[in-house]
Amino acid sequence: MSSHDQPSLKGREVQRTFDKVTDYYDRMNRLMTLGRHAAWCRDVAASAGVPPGGSLLDIATGTGVIALAALERYPGSAVFAVDFSERMLAEAANKPGASAVTWQHADANDLPFDDESFDAVTHGYLLRNVDDVERVLEEQHRVLKPGGRVVILETCPPRGLLRYPVSLGVRVMIPLLGQMVARDRESYAYLQRSTLGFMTPQEVVAILRRVGFVSMAWKKRFFGTHMIISARKR
Ligand SMILES: C[S@@+](CC[C@H](N)C(=O)[O-])C[C@H]1O[C@@H](n2cnc3c(N)ncnc32)[C@H](O)[C@@H]1O
């Protein structure tokens, strides 16, 4: 039995947190990003560059926003979406158009797919929730076909002049919105901590390089608190 058959302690806590916030997830995301999240997900899908009739895997799909954007962008392609929260998957699978996506329960540490299965892999807000970013990116490298792309949407700590006001805003607003909208300050305090505590794009790019990816590119969004990174498997 591999050590990843069951999520780690942190994994189980993350799973519980997302099971708890499912009902409010989309609404909170719209509020926290002032409505920008859907556009970033479309950008992630567009950057994946899936060829006609190709395949895409969206990991940590949550309520499926990236997977559904990919389906719209690449009609006729095979879109697979995985998450280890059953409640998030059920929410995703109930959305309009969702029956064309293959939804599957899986842990990002141990993907249930053969080597070189997909033309593209995407994920939003996965990496800051895992114990070992390098291992998770290695798994993605394994399931990508040669030449395939990975596209990552993630939060990052703000830098430069805006660093202090933006950090303060995140620290105050996210738990407050969590309390007001979801009546769950604790779960959103976790999201606030993981947002400010995650890596810079340069740090993620360095890991992508170690894992074997090439052609890395990144851009920041939303006052430097979000990043979209893409890379290619040789
Ligand atoms: C913040 S949500 C993001 C959902 C979606 N990607 C988006 O952009 O809205 C993070 C998701 O990652 C999932 N997740 C976290 N760690 C995971 C892991 N190790 N394996 C699979 N899913 C994971 C959680 O269950 C949750 O649904």
Topology record:
Layout: H1 9-21, H2 25-32, H3 37-47, E1 55-59, H4 65-73, E2 78-83, H5 86-93, E3 102-105, E4 118-124, H6 133-143, E5 144-155, H7 163-182, H8 185-197, H9 201-211, E6 213-221, E7 226-233
Parallel strand pairs: 1-2, 1-4, 2-3, 4-5
Antiparallel strand pairs: 5-7, 6-7
| CATH fold label of the domain at 36-158 and 198-233 | Rossmann fold
Biggest beta sheet summary:
7 strands, mixed
Question: What is the 3D form?
Answer: globular
Number of helices: 9
Mean pLDDT: 92
Measured between the Cα atoms of the first and last residue, the distance is 31 Å
| Beta-strand percent range | 15-25%
Helix-strand category: alpha/beta
Contiguous uncertain segments of 5+ residues: none
Percent of residues in helical segments? Answer: 40-55%
Which cofactors or ions or other ligands sit in this model? S-adenosylmethionine
Classified by CATH, the class of the domain at 36-158 and 198-233 is Alpha Beta
Tell me how many strands there are: 7
Instruction: Please state how the strands of the largest beta sheet are arranged side by side.
Output: 3-2-1-4-5-7-6
* CATH-defined architecture of the domain at 36-158 and 198-233: 3-Layer(aba) Sandwich
Radius of gyration, taken over Cα atoms and rounded to an integer in Å: 17 Å
> H/E order of the elements?
HHHEHEHEEHEHHHEE
- Going by CATH, the homologous superfamily of the domain at 36-158 and 198-233 would be Vaccinia Virus protein VP39
Pfam families: Ubie_methyltran (PF01209)
Enzyme class: transferase
Binding site for S-adenosyl-L-methionine: 63, 83, 107-108
GO molecular function: demethylmenaquinone methyltransferase activity
